[in-house]
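Dear colleagues,

As part of the handover before I leave the project, I'm documenting each prediction I ran so the next person doesn't have to rerun anything. This entry is a single chain, and its sequence is reproduced below.
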Amino acid sequence: MSAPVAMRCADSVASAPALSDFARFQFGEVLAPELEGWNGDDIGSWLGANRSRIADLRNKKLERFSLEALIRFATRLNYRVELRIEKIERPYAKRSHDTRG
């Protein structure tokens, strides 16, 4: 079982494509080994994908998949996928839009 990997962007702004690419990389690291030893048609039937899509997964050609599809594959292989967003309080950050008294 793979250890969880987290991408932290506390003080920098990460672009959406960079986060998407990083998420795809994580899925590749988890999913590709899970497909070893399976017939492409059998695992494809289980995951709801055809043989060529399974070949793409095995070869980590993940730019061809939406994040939703990769999440679906991971959950069908008994992985829990979490996206966590948490507010970071910064005492130096002032709210300029606060017009309350």
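Helices lie at 16-34, 40-47, 51-58, 67-76. The chain has a mean pLDDT of 81.

All the best with the project,
I.
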